[in-house]
Amino acid sequence: MSELLAQIREKSIEAVHYADIKALYDLVEKHHSDLPDEMEQALYANILEISLELLTNALESKAKLSVFDEAQRYTLRALYEYAISHYSSQRFEEAKALFEVLEGTAEEESFVEAMKIHAAAAKEHIDIDTFIDEYCEIDDKLEDFYIKAFKKKAQKLLNKSKQTKASQ
């Protein structure tokens, strides 16, 4: 193992010990081109494991997670990316459930509303490319870790989802 990979491994062990998701993301982003695939996947697995643990703690204590608190923001980011990976793989029911968990766990109304639209799209089995192309306002650089700007068509989708829930 090269000295760089040994240093990355050591830093990742320390980050896991302190449940520091941001430090793990920083390692992946800074050393992406140097990491063997299995090491990168292990870092992402650590990110997800810590995020799920922090989510469980928040749910048990009935605490809300804030996008303005750095540690909580990285937890929300990891869970959002996990939901998006399910959505991208067309595992719509799992994605919908994860978006709903994020919706119920987050403090900020703008994030909550965005997750409602994501969940509605997953519920309707709208594939990710169609969702992005037809429902989202995306420019070349995503301003945040999650999609939060939507076209008017997205509000119609959300209203349809609310009507379906109300009639059940």
Structure keywords:
168 residues; mainly alpha; 2 domains; 8 helices; globular
Structure summarized in a few sentences:
It contains 8 helices and no strands. It has 168 residues and is mostly helical. Helix 2 (21-31) runs antiparallel to helix 3 (37-61).
Write a structural description.
The chain has 168 residues and is an all-alpha fold. The protein has two domains: 1-63, no CATH class; 66-168. It has eight helices and no strands. Helix 2 runs antiparallel to helix 3 (37-61) and helix 3 packs across helix 4. The longest helix is centred in the first third of the chain and has 25 residues, at 37-61. The N and C termini lie far apart (58 Å).
- Give the count of helical stretches: 8
Q: How would you describe the shape? A: globular
| Biggest sheet statistics | none
The helix/strand class is mainly alpha
Poorly predicted spans: none
**Which strand-content bin applies to the residues?**
under 5%
Order of helices and strands: HHHHHHHH
Kindly provide the radius of gyration, computed on alpha-carbon positions and rounded to a whole number of angstroms.
17 Å
For the record, the count of structural domains works out to 2
Mean pLDDT: 94
Number of strands: 0
Report the end-to-end length measured between terminal Cα atoms: 58 Å
What fraction, in percent, of the residue positions are helical? over 70%
Question: What is the element layout, followed by pairings?
Answer:
Elements: H1 3-17, H2 21-31, H3 37-61, H4 70-88, H5 92-105, H6 109-123, H7 128-135, H8 152-167
